[in-house]
Amino acid sequence: MTPSTSGSQTKRARSFQPRKIFDQIYAYLFLAPALLIFAFFSWNPIFKTVIFSFEKVGLRGPTGWVGLKNYIRMFGNPLFGTAWVNTLEFVILSIIFGFMVPILLALMIREMRRFGPFFQVITYIPTLVPVVVALLVWRMIYYPEGGVLNSFLALLHVPPQLWLQNPHLVKFALILVMTWMGAGGSILIYLAALGEINPEIYEAAELDGVSPIQRILFLTLPLLKSRMAMMMVLQIVAVTQVFTEPFILSTGGPGNSSLTPVLQIYRTAFENSDFGLASTWSVSLLVVLGTFMALYVWLNHKNEEQRLA
């Protein structure tokens, strides 16, 4: 390549740079309305919530600046520790009893030759049922007298249980409902991840005499590790925000044993009309969820790097 040729290419490349800059400006101008609308409806409420947490806010709006008094009241309230301890227990129970359920069901459906699509639809149906309707049905299932679950236990000569009235059982009962309602979407995600695995890996394993259980333990699960980590973070975020299940099934009881931060936010704001204190609770929830979402973004970025490597 001659010096004149290289010089002409350099000038041509430089001439294209302003054009690329102008193209990006036009692109951002087209995106500006959507970005402004997103910021107004997403970031503006967050910003106002943070401001309200330092004010006394009633039904008529802010009435005065109180500084850190709302935070002192929140941390001094025994329900603050109760709600977050309950949330931690919900998260642990959801990981122990609910995290592996979608993975196992996805593996079973993946191994089915004929009825795989049918069971994909069956497992996703609970996601389509309206939440309130599903919870009302589950409340009838959990009835102490005449409930479906206790009637089934009676056939096994097991005494009836107070599923929603016993503080030692209510969390497990709620986690069971959450798993039933949320497993469908997770199963589809895991099925998509299983479809991305190269079939040649399984063919080579079969030639080496690897059993199906060994194939799952030493091939499938390690290949799903990054996706499982992402799903675990999303599950923790979802369980931390749980509200509808304890609100409808147990109303936070018995004895605040199923009280959650979001349920306490609802009570503080709409039952006590103390929106400033409710905003303070929301800020604490925002900090916790923001931490987990940062972890999710990091895991997602790491997963993309591994996929492109």
SSE map:
Blueprint lengths: L2 H50 L2 E4 L2 E5 L3 H8 L1 H21 L1 H12 L4 H13 L2 H11 L6 H8 L14 H26 L3 H9 L4 H12 L1 H16 L3 H7 L10 H11 L3 H34 L1
Antiparallel strand pairs: 1-2
Helix pairs in contact: 1-14, 2-14, 3-8, 3-11, 4-5, 4-8, 5-8, 6-12, 8-12, 11-14, 13-14
Please sum up the structure shown.
The chain is mainly α and 309 residues long. It has 14 helices and two strands. It has two domains: 3-52; 74-308, MetI-like (MetI-like fold, Orthogonal Bundle).
Structural description of this entry:
The chain has 309 residues and is mainly α. The protein folds into two domains: 3-52; 74-308, MetI-like fold (Orthogonal Bundle). It has 14 helices and two strands. The chain has helices at residues 3-52, 69-76, 78-98, 100-111, 116-128, 131-141, 148-155, 170-195, 199-207, 212-223, 225-240, 244-250, 261-271, 275-308, and strands at residues 55-58, 61-65. Strands 1-2 form a two-stranded antiparallel ribbon. Helix 3 runs antiparallel to helix 11 and helix 8 (170-195) runs antiparallel to helix 12. 21% of the residues are buried. The model is unreliable at 8-13 (pLDDT under 50).
Count of beta strands: 2
The whole-number mean of residue pLDDT values reads 86
The largest sheet is: 2 strands, antiparallel
Give the overall shape, derived from the CA principal axes: flat
Q: Which regions are unreliable across 5 or more consecutive residues at pLDDT < 50?
A: 8-13
* Helical fraction: over 70%
Q: Look at the structure and give the CATH class of the largest domain.
A: Mainly Alpha
- Spatial strand order of the main sheet: 1-2
Q: How does the helix and strand content classify structurally?
A: mainly alpha
Which fold does the CATH topology of the largest domain refer to?
A: MetI-like fold
Question: What is the subunit arrangement here?
Answer: single chain
Number of helices: 14
Number of domains: 2
CATH superfamily of the largest domain: MetI-like
Q: Tell me what the CATH architecture of the largest domain is.
A: Orthogonal Bundle
The radius of gyration computed from the alpha-carbon positions, rounded to a whole number of angstroms, is 26 Å
What sequence of helices (H) and strands (E) makes up the elements? HEEHHHHHHHHHHHHH
DSSP strand (E) fraction? Answer: under 5%
Distance between the termini: 34 Å
